[in-house]
Amino acid sequence: MTTSEPDAxxxxxxxxxxxxxxxxxxxxxxxxxxxxxxAAVLAVVRSADPxxxxxxxxxxxxxxxxxxxxxxxxxxxxxLIDVASAPSARGQRSPGRPAxxxxxxxxxxxxxxxxxxPRSVTACLADLDGEPVAVERRAVRADxxxxxxxxxxxxxxxxxxxxxxxxxxxxxxxxxxxxxxxDRNNTRVRQADNLHTWTEVDIAGVLRDLLGCPxxxxxxxxxxxxxxxxxxxxxxxGGTADRTGPDPATGEMVFVLLGERLGSGVxxxxxxxxGHHGAAGEIGFIRFSGGGPADRxxxxxxxxxxxxxxxxxxxxxxxxxxxxxxxLAEGLAPVLLALDPALVVLGTxxxxxxxxxxxxxxxxxxxxxxxxxxxxxPPRWHLSALGDDAVLTGAxxxxxxxxxxxxRTRPTSLNSPGFASGRR
Length: 424
Description:
By secondary structure, the protein is α/β, with parallel strands linked by helices. The chain contains ten helices and 14 strands.
């Protein structure tokens, strides 16, 4: 994706994708028609199983064979598709050369997702199927100033590119998740109390200069919700292993990010709810009752020792975790009454070690039971299936949403002939 197209669409942030005209149709130029036809052919290649032959592409798109042939050759030249290996035909003999089959090339381009936290930065390079190719993690001091934190971000991204041997020109979009409030246009962090001078950094501009592609900034809890909807609890119905298909409940979901700070991401109508100022879901500003600091909002995280002892079934620690869960539910109840979600997902950032899972389940059970008595139609509750990777997964998904718009409308604008030879 070229820097000459700065007005990227981020559909998961509520931007409207290009659609059919609602008034008098405008004249369609030859180039626009060819781009539309290329998008149609590419869509069939991506969705067909098994890999389609030319005749199948002609039939599926209703385009002429010469038109499809020309489009296929252009898509191959630009690295977006290639010729699939012929399936095994053991015991079968057929005259002549077998018809070519075509497959999507997910490594034609890449996206970058970044998870920024007070004490760490993680960068992920993913292909066009959303599969991670390289992940780089960096530890940072909690009090590191904004410009230094930005340098850690760029260092992690460069390291991921180097590890994968991918040139920066092959990155087509990037998204960065961060604590705090993000402006409605996904360009700046406007408040981040726990990241020193982070708001003074134009991190979107820094990454655009590095990558030369569209860049979005989004709240970490919002991205965690998108990640969970995409490849976490939402990946299988009810989050269970014996049922497949998207879970309808993730269309109305509240993701609660538990960590050094408290936040939430809200999915409603299948889309992210951001609010007028981009601050929807900021439950860290709720003043929770009982046992907490009266002079400031939010919930302090559970001490690591308490979590560890609760996981080992220490009665006092278990009681503390249960009380924390009840406080969380009581503070969330008005939010859940207003939104009426089908599902509440608790992030497990406080429980990074699998051995701590019993403590996480204790908190979940206490919160759910207490909330059930406060709500009209109680939702299901579930622990995050992505754990510590929820924000990073959501960042990849957010970045891919921008690329998907182009793949569905004008895919041949993404690359130029000879691109496949542009590797380092």
